[in-house]
């Protein structure tokens, strides 16, 4: 029996440079999911796009064969005439992309965009097409299909848009679905649901899936067959059980080791005893008034409500939540970038016994001092370093602003800091574009450290990085914290990342903290349905621990759908109760 | 419903803007010391023509130029009774042109609709040329099609309009027997509208349209091309290709719709730019548009004429902006539903 898709010795390159995909071969069987795994730059995306021949213009396919053996076609996709390829695209082979935000046209209604596939490939009347699309919308989980038909993409959340993309890909019932990092841009609970959806649709229709991802956890939950790629070559290929259970190649082993995991905890942590607080966030509520323009009434949005958090000196407090949970607003309030609503305050204690500073009520001198002692590391290392400044300038600039040291002292400090983060002082004369993502994140950490801060606010510092690099950055952050006795306020959407670095975790949802405890306690005995959903949604590279979709759906919905004990509506949340020492849960008594 | 409300809102704000513009126009015109009549009185005195002075003094009274400036303004607008009761812009009396010694309404009457005609033709020309060329240049970017279109565009931008006008007149007349100068054959001037007159006007319009529109078309083509290129690299284009759409259909449905916004938004700027830009061209080509009158009026401080022409240009601008705003709301659901709750 022939495979549905056979890729043989595929080689792709740009210009005269050596190929970026070389000699890649694999096969996809009907009804199976094949995962193409690799880090950024591994060539996995080029490989999957070459199947539909939607490569960047400069890319040249230098050799190979992609044999598609569908029910109606037996064709080498690399050689097929454009017209034939068009009849296959979207009909027999469909694709979904990484960024649901940008992969749909903002100017056309979803119904129009999805039914277009049927208009292109089936001679179908508009009524019939609409009926089919509505059916498909229901299958991908739109509660009100008619409403989805009329909606524009910008009216929907990321998860809903990705469902619409999936509906678009599935509506013509393709034999092969190519999913290019379909869940990377989504929150972890949404990711779990979307992955579950793809799996269910695959079972229902018997199509094959090529899943392109960097996340072995996702792979373990989806794939029967795995191809691991690195630097344009296949490192290892085999069944999921073989590759994940007994990886043969060193690179695969490295990837598995680096995958973030929520640890199995045997016993809850002992409640922390120290009370040396460096940053005390008290009763912080932050609401924004949105002016809609024209004559409409302004809308008040509460980004976070009743937040009480304490960062202990030398420790890490992590705030975990999905996008829109209010975690970033908390960090901005903590740093004084936003003023909390009346009644809330933030107290900063630079040293034991030193004078305390109220962050939102500072004299200009205090402000300068505070800005030196509290620094921030940003999410996106690509846009947080000016491309026009040499590394040396970027690292000495904070000291110049605060008028610290002489010119040569500043240079020495920059060199010292760059050594701290594991880079070579010789690199100081380069521009940021010469560095990889991980190296850039090291540079922004070094920049934050040049002022000898006491407190570092890390806003998703590893989210934009490959897993193996993510691991290194976390180690670096731990190392620096202990070396310089720093305190961290660590913002993340990823419970597994937090698991390893935090001393205390606060889980946020819908603007409030729903559960707070040391990580060990949290993982040993999660009490809140949302925390349980977060833990259950975490994909892990272990076939024995699949995502528990039932737990996810119980906790990931709106607060109104939670069990009686935790349920609330709008901002009328119950109080945060201490159920056991050091373990607080927002629930009704 | 929502669109209607928006239209009413825009209309009200447009009227308000127009009012503010009228104040500004009046102030600016009165900024230079003296006015047309006082200049003339001084001249008459210097040449000893005492009998003329009486008439000029009469005009001064008649048009309230002897009153304080703010009263002059309200009388001009028609919000305050002047020497002849309420008689201002609001009542349809545009004032007296001292330079031409005729009512402003009479002078600009014909020129007004000819101006609108010439500029409308030019705007249509701009869109008709820029749209296909811009799309073509973007779709075939960095091929000879793109380079040729770009070259022609830059040529259009760089050639001075009056020079282009002279060249076109010469060759147009030599090879195609096109008429030179004017907006209609001399025999039709002042005649009532007839089929022959329309034909004559259309024939005369060809060269001016081309001359006034070229640089605008070139600039707009470049903008459309740049917008299209931006849009072509967006992920939703890839989605459309992956659906199996043919390139031409895909181009028209997705990126063009997106690139169209700035294109539409330009309508507002295009009209006034053309009216003021075509002054020189009108002089060179001998077009009876409002442009040459504006030039004369400004030179001789003929204040009512100048003020009226400026107000007229402002009105065109505001109408253009309003049209483009309403079109944008129709075209782009993000603007339409921007405030809708999700």
TrEMBL record, chain A:
PANTHER family from the UniProt entry: DIPEPTIDE TRANSPORT ATP-BINDING PROTEIN DPPD, OLIGOPEPTIDE TRANSPORT ATP-BINDING PROTEIN APPD
Membrane topology: Peripheral membrane protein
Pfam families given in the database record: ABC_tran, oligo_HPY
GO term, biological process aspect, one: peptide transport
UniProt GO molecular function: ATP binding; ATP hydrolysis activity
Any one cellular-component term (Gene Ontology): plasma membrane
UniProt main location, coarse: membrane
Domain annotation ABC transporter: ranges: 5-256, 279-535
Subcellular compartments: Cell inner membrane
InterPro entries membership: AAA+_ATPase (IPR003593), ABC_Ni/Peptide_Import (IPR050388), ABC_transporter-like_ATP-bd (IPR003439), ABC_transporter-like_CS (IPR017871), Oligopep_ABC_C (IPR013563), P-loop_NTPase (IPR027417)
The protein's name in its UniProt record: Dipeptide ABC transporter ATP-binding protein
UniProt similarity note: Belongs to the ABC transporter superfamily.
UniProtKB/TrEMBL annotation, chain B:
Principal location: membrane
Membrane-topology annotation of the record: Multi-pass membrane protein
Keyword Cell membrane assigned: yes
Keyword set includes Transmembrane helix: yes
GO cellular component: plasma membrane
Cell location: Cell membrane
Annotated family: Belongs to the binding-protein-dependent transport system permease family.
Protein name (record): ABC transporter permease subunit
Lineage: Bacteria, Pseudomonadati, Pseudomonadota, Alphaproteobacteria, Rhodobacterales
């Amino acid at each position: 029996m022939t495979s549905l898709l056979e890729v043989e010795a595929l080689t792709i390159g740009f210009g005269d440079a050596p190929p970026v995909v070389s000699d890649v071969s694999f096969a996809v069987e009907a009804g199976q999911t094949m995962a193409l795994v690799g880090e950024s730059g591994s060539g996995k995306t080029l490989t999957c796009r070459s199947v539909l021949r939607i490569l960047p213009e400069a890319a040249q396919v230098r050799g190979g064969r992609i044999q598609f053996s569908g029910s109606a076609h037996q064709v080498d996709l690399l050689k097929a005439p454009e017209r034939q390829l068009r009849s296959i695209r979207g009909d027999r082979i469909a694709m979904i992309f990484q960024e649901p935000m940008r992969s749909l046209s903002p100017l056309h209604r979803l119904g129009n965009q999805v039914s277009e596939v049927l208009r292109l490939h089936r001679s179908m009347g508009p009524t019939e097409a609409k009926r089919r699309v509505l059916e498909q919308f229901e299958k991908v989980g739109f509660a009100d299909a008619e409403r989805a038909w009329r909606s524009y993409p910008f009216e929907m959340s990321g998860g809903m848009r990705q469902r619409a993309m999936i509906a678009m890909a599935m509506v013509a019932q393709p034999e092969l679905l190519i999913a290019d990092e379909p869940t990377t841009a989504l929150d972890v609970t949404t990711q779990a649901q979307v992955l579950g959806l793809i799996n269910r649709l695959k079972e229902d229709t018997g199509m094959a899936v090529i899943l392109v991802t960097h996340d072995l956890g996702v792979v373990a939950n989806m794939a029967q067959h795995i191809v691991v790629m690195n630097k344009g070559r296949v490192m290892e290929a085999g069944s999921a059980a073989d590759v994940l259970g007994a990886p043969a190649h060193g690179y695969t082993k490295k990837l598995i080791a680096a995958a973030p995991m929520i640890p199995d905890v045997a016993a809850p942590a002992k409640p922390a005893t120290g009370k040396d607080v460096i940053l005390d966030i008290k009763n912080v509520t932050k609401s924004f008034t949105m002016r809609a323009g024209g004559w409409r009434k302004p809308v008040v949005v509460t980004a976070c409500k009743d937040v009480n958090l304490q960062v202990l000196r030398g420790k890490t407090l992590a705030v975990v939540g999905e996008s829109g949970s209010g975690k970033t607003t908390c960090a901005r309030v903590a740093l004084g970038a936003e003023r909390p609503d009346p009644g809330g305050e933030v107290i900063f204690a630079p040293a034991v016994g030193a004078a305390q500073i109220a962050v939102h009520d500072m004299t200009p001198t205090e402000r300068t001092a505070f800005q030196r002692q509290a620094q921030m590391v940003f999410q996106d290392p690509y846009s947080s370093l000016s491309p026009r400044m040499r590394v040396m300038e970027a690292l000495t600039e904070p000291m110049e602003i605060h008028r610290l040291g002489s010119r040569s002292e500043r240079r020495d400090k920059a060199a010292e800091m760059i050594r701290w983060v594991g880079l070579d002082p010789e690199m100081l004369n380069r521009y940021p574009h010469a560095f990889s993502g991980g190296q850039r994140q090291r540079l922004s950490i070094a920049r934050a450290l040049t002022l000898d801060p006491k407190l570092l606010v890390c806003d998703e510092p590893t989210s934009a990085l490959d897993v193996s690099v993510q691991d290194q950055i976390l180690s670096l952050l731990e190392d620096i914290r202990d070396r310089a006795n720093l305190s961290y306020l660590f913002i993340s959407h990823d419970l597994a990342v937090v698991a390893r670095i935090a001393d205390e975790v606060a889980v946020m949802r819908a603007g409030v903290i729903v559960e707070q405890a040391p990580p060990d306690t949290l993982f040993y005995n999660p009490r809140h349905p949302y925390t349980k959903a977060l833990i259950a949604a975490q994909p892990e590279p272990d076939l024995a621990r699949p995502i528990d979709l039932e737990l996810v759906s119980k906790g990931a919905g709106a607060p109104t759908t939670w069990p009686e004990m935790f349920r609330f509506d709008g901002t009328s949340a119950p109080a945060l109760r201490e159920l056991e020492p050091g373990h607080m849960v927002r629930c009704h008594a | 419903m929502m669109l209607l409300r928006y239209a009413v809102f825009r209309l009200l704000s447009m009227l308000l803007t127009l009012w503010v513009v009228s104040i500004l126009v009046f102030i600016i015109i009165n900024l230079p010391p003296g006015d047309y009549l006082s200049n003339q009185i001084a001249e008459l005195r210097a040449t000893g023509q005492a009998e003329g002075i009486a008439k000029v003094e009469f005009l001064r009274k008649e048009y309230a130029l002897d009153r304080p400036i703010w009263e002059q303004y309200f009388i001009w607008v028609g919000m305050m009774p002047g020497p002849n009761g309420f008689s201002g812009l609001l009542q349809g009396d545009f004032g007296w042109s001292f330079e031409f010694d005729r009512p402003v309404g009479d002078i600009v009457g014909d020129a007004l609709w000819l101006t609108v005609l010439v500029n409308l033709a030019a705007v249509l020309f701009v869109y008709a040329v820029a749209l296909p060329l811009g799309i073509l240049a973007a779709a075939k970017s960095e091929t000879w099609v793109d380079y040729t279109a770009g070259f022609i565009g830059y040529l259009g931008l760089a050639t001075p309009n009056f020079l282009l006008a002279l060249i076109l007149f010469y060759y147009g007349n030599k090879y195609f027997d096109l008429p030179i100068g004017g907006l209609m054959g001399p025999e039709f001037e002042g005649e009532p509208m007839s089929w022959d007159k329309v034909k004559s006007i259309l024939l005369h319009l060809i060269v001016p349209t081309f001359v006034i529109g070229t640089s605008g078309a070139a600039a707009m083509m470049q903008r459309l091309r740049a917008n299209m290129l931006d849009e072509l690299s967006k992920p939703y284009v890839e989605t459309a290709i992956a659906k199996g759409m043919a390139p031409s259909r895909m181009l028209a449905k997705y990126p063009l719709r997106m690139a169209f916004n700035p294109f539409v938004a330009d309508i507002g700027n295009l009209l006034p730019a053309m009216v003021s830009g075509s002054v020189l061209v009108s002089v060179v080509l001998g077009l009876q548009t409002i442009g040459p009158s504006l030039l004369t009026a400004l030179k001789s401080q003929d204040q009512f004429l100048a003020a009226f022409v400026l107000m007229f240009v402002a009105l065109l601008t505001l109408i253009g902006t309003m049209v483009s705003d309403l079109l944008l709301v129709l075209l782009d659901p993000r603007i339409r539903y921007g405030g809708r709750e999700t």
